[in-house]
Amino acid sequence: MKPSLPLNLPPEPTLVHEDPHLLVLDKPSGLLCVPGRGEDKQDCLSARAQARWPEALVAHRLDMATSGLVLMARSPAVQRALGDAFAEQAVWKRYEAVVDGVLAEDPHWSVIDAPLMADWPRRPLQKIDPAGKPSVTRWRVLEALPALGASRLLLEPRTGRTHQLRVHLASIGHPILGDALYADAAVQARASRLMLHASVLQFRHPVDGQALRFESPAPF
Predict the structure, then answer these.
(1) In CATH, which of 1.10.3720.10, 3.30.420.40, 3.30.2350.10, 3.30.360.10 is domain 6-88?
(2) Positions marked catalytic
(3) What is the pTM of this model?
(4) Alpha-carbon distance 117 to 63, whole Å?
(5) Fewer CB within a 10 Å sphere, N or C end of the chain?
(6) What CATH homologous superfamily does 92-206 map to?
């Protein structure tokens, strides 16, 4: 007997870019980037991509609850090159989020500089700790949403720590709406999903050096 498929599967990712060396996909919220533990966690972005491009390899990840742009390689050599680019902070990323609290619209950037480490007793949660890895996020207010008691932010992570944006925003008193890990029950209940979207990827092509920029408008 074939194992039953989970109900209410996330929609298919959208192809944003395809060339002989790499892919850019727009991942829906609720879809893992790579398989998790257990038969119910095998549906993921990499599995769906490999059904069409068998050679596809994940170059970086988004949280399951986060939507937006994901870069995939089509060979191990390109995967290594992209991994190096992410490690060297040569890939420029931006996100949009809707957070709790009404903030004044401001064209200036603010910075959260707070080291992060795993909160081992509560894994997979992360926490701010002076002994953690350096973690820096730039942010600014795009739009105040007083009717929702919320604000829309533009985010620019300068490092790529696990749950970095979610922990940093919660640490300044503005957790992301719908965040099941770092927001209280009331803030979590104000959205049907995590209101975080990877909206911009900009980098140089690892093979020909061409400057590439991809954008995906937030679906919320």
Answers:
(1) 3.30.2350.10
(2) 63
(3) 0.93
(4) 16
(5) N
(6) Pseudouridine synthase (3.30.2350.10)
